[in-house]
Structures are given as C-alpha cells and as structure tokens.
Amino acid sequence: MKTTVFSLLLALPLAAQAPATPAAAPAPAAEPTVGAAIDGTYQFVPGQFISAAEAMPEDKYPFAPTQGEFKGVKTFAQQVKHVAAVNFAMGAMILGEKPSAGMGEMEMGPADLKTKAEIVKYLKDSFAYARKAIQGITAQNGSRPIKNPFGQGPDWTPIGVATLLAFHGMDHYGQMVEYLRMNGIVPPASRR
Fold it and tell me: Is 192 helix (H, G, I), strand (E, B) or coil?
C-alpha cells in the first residue's frame, strides 16, 4: 500500500505537466455582410462631413462665395441640408420605405431649419439613417432593382445607391472645405 501511495505521489507532478485535452479551435469569424463591408468604408463620409459642419461658426452658415464664377451656388447651410436630405431620400430607397415628410425638398432640405444646432442635428440623423440602410444590404437584396428617381436611365440597386451616397457626400464635402478655408478655418481633417 505504501508503494502504491508513493507511486501516486510521484505521478501527480508528471500528470500536472501533461498536455491538457486540446480545446476546440475558435470558430472562424463570419464573413461580413455586403452592407457591413460597404459601411466599413462609408463610415468615413459622416466622420469627415459632420466635423466640417461643426467647424463652421453659426454666423458663417449663410456664407456663399461671391468672387468669381460662384453666382447662384448654395450657402454653407444649404450644402449641409442638401446632403442630409439626399441621405434620407437614398436611405429610404435602399430600405424600400417612403421618404420622411420632414425630409424637406431634396435640393435644399427643410426650409424651417435655421440654426446651426438644428441643421447639424438633422445632418447627424440623416447619416445614422443612411448607415442603417447601408448596413441592411445583403447578397440577397443588394442587386434588387430600384426605380431610377430621375425617370431616365437604368434602374438602380441598393449597392449602387450606397455608392452614390458616398461620392455625393464627399463631393459636397470638398465644396464645404473650400467654404471653410475662404473663412480662415482649417478643416478638422487637415489639422495636425
């Protein structure tokens, strides 16, 4: 019996050093949906755009260039409201929803939004809605036809509309950067 107990005591340290039963390998990460992949890039649009909208002082929101070939261009506030209205309209297209009545006219946005705080809130809400729509795009619904809102040309698709949202926002962001610089403001994305 002493030999058996002694043998067991000697074996315990060896058993403690023995490799454990191999754990199950972690499951491979699920491949992102089409919408998540698009949103991974699109998220930079609201990041750049909102920071530019917030950087312009409220008293400069009515600013529009007047020197040179700028007759009839949108004011800074109109640029922001236009992009927000388009975000709501295109997000609704992707989701297959009717655009919100509070969206306003797509070219100029809601006329009743006057203060910087109101306009920036509307802008943030529009980007949240657009991102929700983009994130809902899947391989199954991403190529479904969406009637072209301009009445001519081929139908659109949710993936195409998401692409349009990205380049449209950045097109107007470029214009807003010019407006900021014309007012002596370095855009947040260019600050060190």
Answer: coil
Instruction: Dump pLDDT digits (tens) for 77-108.
Output: 999 999 999 999 999 999 999 887 677 778 88
* Spatial distance between the Cα atoms of 59 and 147, rounded to a whole number of angstroms: 40
- The string of DSSP codes covering 9-44 is HHHHHHHHHSPPPPPPPPPPPPPPPHHHHHHHHHTH
Mapping DSSP onto H, E and C, the string for 105-144 reads ECCCECCCCCCHHHHHHHHHHHHHHHHHHHHCCCCCCCCC
| Residue 81 burial by Cβ neighbours in a 10 Å radius (0-12, 13-18, 19+) | buried
What are the residues whose beta carbons fall under 8 Å from the beta carbon of 100, sequence distance 6 or more?
88, 92
Cα 36 from Cα 135, distance rounded (Å): 5
> Which has the closest alpha carbon to 95: 36, 52, 53, 138?
138
